[in-house]
Amino acid sequence: MYDSSKLRVIMESIRSFLFNLFIMAKVIYLGVKQFFQEACRTVNPINDPLNRQGEYAIITGGNRGIGFYTLLGLQASGMKVIAGCRDGRSKQQLFEKLEEAGIPADSVEWINLDLSSLNSVKIFAKVVIDRNIRISLLINNAAIMFTTYGLSKDGFEQQFAVNYLGHFLLTHLLLPQLVEGGKHNRYASRIVNVSSDSSFLGYLNLDDLHAKSFYNKFVAYAQSKLAQVLFNEMLHTHLTQNDHPIKCYAIHPGVVRSNWYNTTWYLKISVRITGFCNIKSETLAAQRVLYTSFSPVLENSSGCYLSDCKITTPASKLLCPTLRLKLWDVTLKILDIEQFGKL
Ligand SMILES: NC(=O)c1ccc[n+]([C@@H]2O[C@H](COP(=O)([O-])OP(=O)(O)OC[C@H]3O[C@@H](n4cnc5c(N)ncnc54)[C@H](OP(=O)(O)O)[C@@H]3O)[C@@H](O)[C@H]2O)c1
Ligand SMILES: *[C@@H]1O[C@H](CO)[C@@H](O)[C@H](O)[C@H]1NC(C)=O
Ligand SMILES: *[C@@H]1O[C@H](CO)[C@@H](O)[C@H](O)[C@H]1NC(C)=O
Ligand SMILES: *[C@@H]1O[C@H](CO)[C@@H](O)[C@H](O)[C@H]1NC(C)=O
């Protein structure tokens, strides 16, 4: 006679195996679709980069990948750039790459930021706030992708923590500085979330945000990116209600040959197989981020989602609208924020 608990365990592993298989199929479908879409796309850079001499921009990451090339564009527009990346190897890489690009080291400021620690986010924000500067642009770029299960310093699933929670907290803490920037500079401030079309995987499990009962690395990544998209929409509502001079956007930077494609065998293979496709370089992806940061065309389109520099229907439309409200509330609770944007 089989005892029922054993049977339950077996049934559970079959269920989870089938679900993983289903997700893999969906990932492959979405991946192939994205590769081919990207092949047909061209980048639509801003022809007329604005002169933003002396205004402050903050970018998370920035030491490599899309973030580094975005940082170069910000610097070229005359902005004072603050890069928030980790100390040690990442910081060193930032300054080595700047030197390679012939950019004087003192034209970019580095402040230590580890998004996997909420305390580090708080310290970063405090250093910025104490500088008493007005911020014109915040680019939430840093991310980890398709990582194996792991916890952040605060005990949250790490992709959710770094990609979503850390940036949520950062945006909350810097909001007053962004409001100041929007009030006193020529243009409204902007917040740009480098999200991803992988949000179209369409998962958001509010009952298990930290993947304690089920973990699939694609789902966890897609969920963190979808959460960003939902947040963008809530943030837009919040900014409008409070009449804040800030515009916010979430974007898909494209399928980009960043270092990420060197990290796992299946990503390496997918780049090989689709080598004939027109996968974009990090420089081109950065152009899309810069377009979202600067283009006057987007001035009245706050809260939108862009793919390939075009306003597109976001993945959040697949979901029930009440979900974004719930996610917003849950996040405020997790982060112990009483009122968003009020310190
Ligand atoms: N590549 C694509 O095809 C693609 C597609 C869709 C969306 N995206 C999005 O584009 C953005 C940039 O991606 P990428 O391709 O440039 O990736 P990447 O080359 O892997 O760069 C990721 C950046 O995030 C930083 N980062 C990671 N964990 C961090 C932490 N705990 N604290 C602070 N910084 C951290 C990294 O710094 P370290 O060097 O310290 O790790 C690095 O600067 C991401 O938001 C990604 O989701 C990329
Ligand atoms: C981006 O997403 C983060 C959460 O990851 C959120 O805090 C931030 O306000 C969002 N901003 C925009 C413009 O979407
Ligand atoms: C990926 O690895 C290849 C081969 O090792 C290397 O030539 C290439 O520069 C790497 N790409 C990035 C973006 O690091
Ligand atoms: C945005 O709206 C303002 C006010 O309605 C209008 O004057 C301006 O031309 C609009 N800008 C764009 C790019 O549509």
From TrEMBL:
It holds the Pfam family adh_short. The keyword Membrane applies. Keywords: Membrane, Oxidoreductase, Transmembrane, Transmembrane helix. This is Dehydrogenase/reductase SDR family member on chromosome X. The chain crosses the membrane at residues 12-32. The keyword Transmembrane applies. One of its GO terms (molecular function) is oxidoreductase activity.
